[in-house]
Specification:
By secondary structure, the protein is α+β, with helices and mostly antiparallel strands. Helices cover 17% and strands 52% of the residues. The protein is globular, with a radius of gyration of 13 Å.
Length: 106
């Protein structure tokens, strides 16, 4: 079992059902040393507004989200769902849990 930290779209039960065909379980957590930045992504019907995590100059800056339990095989589904504006990296959350998170792909 893997951990996936989500601060945005993946927290939606509707999106979880669309990607995994199930609702994920998880716990509230924080990612320190990052901040959220606005991002526009072109979708089928035009541009849509999202946020992306980027490193912060302040190591105490928090991003609030949820650490979900996820199967390793389901990570590939999320890789397909996320646009190429994001990349998946492993981080340690404020709780000490090691999790995957999608950050800005530079």
């Amino acid at each position: 079992m893997e951990k996936l930290f989500s601060y945005g779209t993946l927290r939606s039960k509707q999106i979880q059902m669309q990607i995994f065909n199930k609702v994920l379980t998880g716990t509230s957590d924080q990612l320190l040393g990052y901040k959220l930045k606005s991002l526009q992504i072109e979708e089928e019907f035009g541009m849509a507004d999202y946020v992306v995590a980027v490193p912060s100059a302040d190591s105490s800056d928090p991003i609030h989200g949820v650490a979900f339990n996820i199967l390793a095989s389901d990570l590939a589904k999320v890789d397909i769902f996320e646009s190429n504006a994001y990349k998946r990296v492993q981080v340690t959350l404020s709780s000490g849990i090691v999790a995957w998170v999608y950050i800005e792909n530079k």
